[in-house]
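FIELD: query
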Amino acid sequence: MSMTNYIIIIKALEDGNFFISFPDFEGLTAIADSEENIQSVATETIKAKLIELRKSNLVIPEAKKMKDVSSTLNEGEFSTYVPVKENFDFKATINNLKDQESFKKGTEDLKNKANELTDNIPKGYENLFGIIGGVISIINTFLFAIFSVKVPFFGDYSIGFFKCLGVLADFSKEAKNAQAILLFSGILFVALAGLLIYSSIIKNKNILLYSIIGNAIFLVIFYVILFIKLPGGEVGKYISVSFFKILLYLISFALAFVSYFFLNKIEENEVGETTKTIETTIPIETSLNNGDDKNEEGL
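FIELD: result
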């Protein structure tokens, strides 16, 4: 999630409405029916425009500076900033990546490296990566901050799953609404990490795969909800999301997937060996039976 301050130009109309134009987006305009609604109307208009540009794979213009706009204002117009907090569009991002050759090549390289890595893992330790991944996920859940808040006159606060937001209630009532979400999510992340460890210990590749997928899906859902619940506007400028925590979760899932990949490879090899054994056994039995038949005919 990123916060960008876009400039809007406002002009009061004779009918009591307000005409809004956007210097960063040529031809984009909007109408607000009251002065109180100017900010919300402008924000939603900009968000809709950004979504349109991304879907069309067009370049998003860099936000202009106030000094570049103020000199061009006409009589009766005034300008102000509108902070726009963009939510991640995970679906669009994944779809765009899939269409890129670099993504396909990177996936193939990752698969080859996984093959090389699994070939060098000693037999019997194929589940070790999944266990380590689960432990990293648990440590990450308990120790590292989800986001940090810089409160004027009060200092910096690091907020985790099990660190309350009550101390920030006076600074932002909206921030306190996220407390229950954080607590529930922390418990669920620990449970899912425990499932990673358990499925790795018993070497059940199916449960391990479901736990990896479950962890990944919940990670996406959690941060989507978190970005919606986090305060915007002036307060949002003092909140920083910890992308290091997201990275650690992704690393833990990747380690667990290495164990899944290795367990799956072992199973495929065992099936292949069993098939070869059956194929080599059947002709031998057939030839023996043919010999018996000939002996019976001779008798």
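FIELD: remark
The CA atoms of residues 211 and 272 lie 27 Å apart.
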